[in-house]
Specification:
The protein has 150 residues and is an alpha+beta fold. The protein folds into 2 domains: 29 residues; 119 residues, Immunoglobulin-like (Sandwich). It is 23% helix and 42% strand. The protein is built from 3 helices and 11 strands, in the order H-E-E-E-E-E-H-E-E-E-E-E-H-E. The strands form 3 sheets. A 6-stranded mixed β-sheet has the order 2-1-4-9-6-7. A 3-stranded mixed β-sheet has the order 3-11-10. Strands 5-8 form a two-stranded antiparallel sheet. A hairpin with a 5-residue loop joins strand 6 and strand 7. It is elongated and about 75 Å long. It starts with a helix and ends with a strand.
């Protein structure tokens, strides 16, 4: 009787382990890690805050791009865009309500003043992407960021 109970316990533990591993491999079941990057400042400075992020390959991220400035800003990184799988981009109004979702590869986003956009993506390769900029003119003025994927 004890051996049967032991075998049942072993079978239950094994089935739980397989189920957990299968869920981990199913990327649609991952909960996103939220990372926030602010564009501009309320006092008119052109910068990204923070100006460096470290992410992990294989994890789903929700990159919240919050435009805290008084003008529209772009967010783009050709290097990063080439190394991620984009799940979706969500556009939010000033109240935080979803107004649009975009699916497919993303190269660059424009975020209106006072609004937020969420880019849901999964890094598939490692690297350091120091080409995060808004526009060339603003980048030359110091509005740059670096994203490292480990």
């Amino acid at each position: 009787m004890n051996s049967i109970r032991r075998l049942i316990r072993i079978a239950l533990v094994a089935s739980l382990a397989v189920s957990t591993a299968a869920q981990a491999a199913d990327l649609t079941k991952q909960e996103p890690v939220t990372v926030t990057l602010k564009l501009g400042t309320v006092d008119g400075q052109h910068r990204f805050t923070p100006d460096s992020l470290t992410l992990e390959a294989g994890k789903l991220y929700k990159l919240r791009l919050e435009n805290t400035g008084s003008q529209p800003y772009y967010f783009g990184s050709a290097g990063l865009a080439d190394m991620v799988y984009t799940r979706k981009v969500v556009a939010l109004d000033a109240a935080g309500k979803v107004v649009a979702e975009v699916y497919g590869p993303i190269r660059r986003l424009e975020i209106s003043a006072g609004h937020t956009t969420e880019w849901w993506f999964l890094p598939v390769r490692t690297g350091v992407f120091d080409d995060v900029i808004s526009t060339k003119k603003l980048a030359d003025g110091g509005m740059r960021a670096t994203i490292e994927v480990k």
